[in-house]
Specification:
globular, 7-stranded parallel beta sheet, about 15% strand, about 250 residues
């Protein structure tokens, strides 16, 4: 999918240091966009931003609103603001409602929901100042469409993303804004997610060995498709699974 229409525009990608976020950032840079890469791990960002293209490394803890607002301020100072926002950052803990730790619930809500809201607000303000066009993309999950056993709180955060995607679309329609909003909801993708979720390398390996799961690049191509669609086409939520994934 061609990104020619976005060449020279500014994209901010959260969670860009690894996995899906890194693949999306690299795909957008290869398509000619200027990429502001945001993540906690500064050394990984430096490695990413050493690649070809125009990059801005933004070390940031999404749980800290001041840190996130500073990242947007840096983009405005360097490049004038954001044209494309990819809210990719997200995490999961194995923290059931009956036994989970409060700090795990709080972290999922802060990163998966609240930081997404703050980044969306700031990016839409930039897009409106820069002429009123732009695209907001949330990397959601198939867990926004069904609840896997034992993952009720994580799934709740992704159901929230699903609601926020539609809520933003309605707000933009009420304003008569041409800014588009989309979500992509992948099933199993081989990333660091399972290791973080299970805190067990063997369990993570088993998660991704049952059948051929998605690669991060598959999701990056889905994002390119969303961005490359004509102005009159808004793909609202793109659901994608490995062919063999049963649910």
């Amino acid at each position: 999918m061609s990104l020619e229409r976005w060449r020279g525009k500014v994209a901010l990608v959260t969670g860009a240091s690894s996995g899906i976020g890194r693949a999306i950032a690299e795909r957008l840079a290869a398509g000619g966009l200027k990429v502001a890469a945001l993540a906690r791990r500064a050394e990984r960002l430096d490695e990413l931003c050493a690649g070809e293209g125009e990059w801005l490394a933004l070390p940031c803890d999404l749980r800290d609103e001041a840190s996130l607002l500073d990242a947007f301020a840096r983009v405005r100072a360097e490049w004038g603001g954001v044209d494309v926002l990819v809210n990719n950052a997200g995490l999961g803990h194995k923290a059931p409602l009956t036994s989970g730790a409060t700090e795990h619930w709080r972290e999922m809500l802060e990163v998966n929901v609240l930081a997404l809201c703050v980044a969306t607000r700031e990016a839409v303000a930039d897009m409106q100042r820069r002429g009123g066009t732009g695209h907001v993309i949330h990397v959601s999950s198939m867990s926004a469409h069904r609840v896997p056993g034992g993952s009720g709180v994580y799934s709740a955060t992704k159901y929230a993303v699903r609601s926020l995607t539609e809520g933003l679309r309605l707000e933009l329609r009420e304003q008569g804004s041409p800014i588009r909003v989309s979500a992509v909801s992948p099933g199993f993708v081989e990333t660091e997610f399972a290791a973080h979720y299970h805190r067990d390398p063997a369990a993570a390996a088993e998660t991704y060995s049952r059948y051929k799961v998605l690669d991060s690049e598959d999701v990056a191509e889905a994002v390119a498709y969303l961005l490359g669609a004509p102005d009159h086409v808004q793909v609202h939520d793109l659901l994608m699974r490995p062919t063999e994934q049963p649910s």
